[in-house]
């Protein structure tokens, strides 16, 4: 078993994980607002069906899947691919968040 200190040794990488999870939450909320205003649509067909069924379910599934994937990558962060995956998630969510901000300001 791991001690807490061993699990969080790479604080910078763990902050990337937290940052990506927070941006995922913003993406979910902003997507629901944009869909409600009719200015955007969910690009993922599976998530689109969840939004139409229940917004809270959509949010919980999106956050759970994102957090799980990022935490698995963090757990295996000794592998270069896992570290790259975490950094890629931060970069991609940064672009998604900028897209949402652009919709807000230029709609």
What is the topological layout?
Blueprint: H1 4-7, H2 11-37, H3 45-53, H4 55-75, H5 80-106
List keywords for this structure.
107 residues; mainly alpha; 5 helices; 82% helix; 0% strand; elongated
Any overview of this molecule?
The protein is built from five helices and no strands. By secondary structure, the protein is mainly alpha-helical.
Summarize the structure.
With 107 residues, the protein is an all-alpha fold. The chain contains five helices and no strands. It has helices at residues 4-7, 11-37, 45-53, 55-75, 80-106.
| Radius of gyration (Å) | 16 Å
**What kind of oligomer do you see?**
single chain
End-to-end span in angstroms?
51 Å
Mean pLDDT: 92
Count every helix, treating DSSP H or I runs of 4 or more residues as helices: 5
Low-confidence stretches: none
The rough form would be described as elongated
Order of helix and strand elements from N to C terminus: HHHHH
Percent of sequence in beta strands: under 5%
Structural class: mainly alpha
């Amino acid at each position: 078993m791991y001690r807490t200190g061993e699990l969080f040794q790479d604080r910078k990488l763990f902050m990337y994980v937290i940052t990506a999870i927070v941006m995922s939450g913003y993406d979910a909320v902003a997507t629901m607002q944009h869909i409600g205003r009719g200015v955007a649509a969910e690009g993922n067909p599976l998530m689109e069906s969840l939004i139409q069924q229940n917004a809270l379910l959509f949010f919980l599934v999106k956050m759970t899947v994102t957090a799980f994937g990022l935490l698995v990558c963090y757990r295996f962060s000794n592998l270069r691919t896992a570290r790259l995956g975490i950094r890629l998630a931060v970069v991609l969510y940064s672009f998604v968040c900028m897209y949402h901000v652009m919709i807000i300001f230029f709609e």
